[in-house]
Amino acid sequence: MKGKIIGVAIVFYLILGFSVSMRAEPNIPKNKQTVLGLYITARDAYFKWYGHKEKVVILDVRTLEEYIFVGHAPMARNIPVKFLNQKQTIEKMRPVMEINPDFVSIV
User: Fold this and answer.
1) Which of 42, 59, 74, 82 could form a disulfide with 97 if both were Cys (CB 3.0 to 4.6 A apart)?
2) String of DSSP letters for 58-94
3) Is the pTM of this model over 0.70?
4) What pLDDT was estimated at residue 86?
């Protein structure tokens, strides 16, 4: 009986610890933080979109290659914030990314 109580207590603390860690503020590096400090999880974004499909747009800013080969949400629109410069990538033997100059105007 005592072992059963200890087991239940351990499970309770594991569940409590997991739920607290899921609600914790995201640990985002200073150089990646936004001015407004507004962050949302993928799960929360999905429910916001699902509740207001006509008003909410899911924007995927990854490269076209990531969008196609890694996968994406079916409702997401892809507007890359950077492009892979294939010519320089081949010359330098490493990925060379360039900012999409039309990103803001397209969005």
Assistant:
1) 82
2) -EE-S-HHHHHHT---TT-EE--SEEE-HHHHHHHTS
3) no
4) 87
